Amino acid sequence: MVVESISSLERSVPVQRIRTRWLDRADATLDMLRLDQLDPEISGNKWYKLKQNLVYAKAQGKTTVLSFGGAWSNHIHALAAAGHRFGLTTIGVIRGEPSLGLTATLTDAQHWGMQLHYLTRADYRRKNEPELIARVLADSGVPAKQVHIVPEGGSNLLGVAGCRDILAAGAVSPGDYDEIWLACGTGATLAGIAMTVSETIPAREIIKGVAVLKGADFLRADINRHTRRTLSNWTLLTDYHHGGYARTTEALRLLITSFEQETGIPTDPVYTGKVLFALKDSLRKNPAAYHSKRLLMIHTGGLQGRRGMAL
Known about the structure:
Layout: E1 15-18, H1 21-26, E2 29-34, H2 44-59, E3 64-69, H3 74-86, E4 89-95, H4 104-111, E5 115-119, H5 121-124, H6 130-140, E6 147-149, H7 157-163, H8 166-169, E7 179-184, H9 188-198, E8 207-211, H10 219-227, E9 234-237, H11 250-263, H12 272-285, E10 294-299
Parallel strand pairs: 2-10, 3-4, 3-6, 4-5, 7-8, 7-10, 8-9
Antiparallel strand pairs: 1-2
Helix pairs in contact: 2-3, 2-7, 3-4, 7-9, 9-10, 11-12
């Protein structure tokens, strides 16, 4: 197997102008940063949260990267693909029972050589405890000194640092837009983008983060921790979760389907679909506020997870 360089994914991604009936009615301009087009296997914002972690692991002489996720995790999928491609062993600590069988996501991960270790939901809540991690490492047979541990979703300071490169990947200048919309699961991607935007637009509230999980008010403190200071250029919308993480509604499904029919762009119901719904709803509620506004929406990938959800 030929081991690629991590720098091989330093690629530009397209920015696509979007036309839909509801955008035309609001007289707003929408561009979409297509992170889903970066790579078919290591897709979207998950790569940006992983890349500095992988660079660090290699620089420290680590042979293995361990992380956590569910049975349809985009993060686990991207990590397994990256490890296979860049010459690192990977361990996935999976929430759930092996008796349920392999999902398409985990089948891919196992194909790419990832060791899968399952935890019950009760144990998974303890995943950051040293004793539990020590147990997983003992079961894996990999010495702890050889392992770099990445938190669930890649949301550490190295992940945030990688996300600072997202706008540059599309040659996007924040000053060209009135608002930047994106999904928010852990806050790391929003934090990285907020730090980038703060270099040119320090005060104006330009970033709209759409929380994809229920009861997400705690994310505000997490984002401030990720940025290591309080920035005033973002806000978090918490009413568009559609029932919670990985939950959906018929209205969300219909929007995803109609948007794909109009534009040819697939989205997912866990992340980008919810951003799309929030943006459309905001335009519907207050069209005058969006008259002639220039909007950017970040498509954060996650399309592999659609295999587990009926649309």
